[in-house]
User: Fold this.
Amino acid sequence: MVGSRNAGRVGRYDLAWEFEFRVWELRGQGLSIEEIASTVEKSATWVSRIISRRGGMPPRRIPPGSRARKGQHLTISDREAILAGLAAGYSMRTIAASLGVSPSTISREVARNRDRRLVGAGVDYSPARAQLKAVHRRHRTRPCKLATNARLRDWVQEKLSQQRWSRD
Assistant:
């Protein structure tokens, strides 16, 4: 947000899932936090925060838009179709019918993710921003046990290092 008091700080919505995915990809290759930080051009503290937020375990989540919708969540391609429909002047009912969802789903999606910075520019809906906000809303609200329990985390890491267990 331009002009906000949090401008320039790592905030809730400025981390694209693809960017976080890159951090985990580099971590999986065995790079240190410092090496990851220099590769993604962020501070080591920032990278450490991303990793510790999940207790050191990479997410199982598949990047948004890379799989078919199960009927519960809109994908990035669905959101792009919403934008195209709005720009073409179609009604929310028409857009909903083309996507096979309820009209109220489209209405709530557009209302929830209106970008006030784009008001007056025609369509004030941004699919990329909407996808990013949706991904962040779906994150767990409480930290996993490995993040909060050092003894359990050490035990699991010991077992993994002995190769008795696999991460899968």
About this structure: Residues 1-15, 62-69 have pLDDT under 50 and may be disordered.
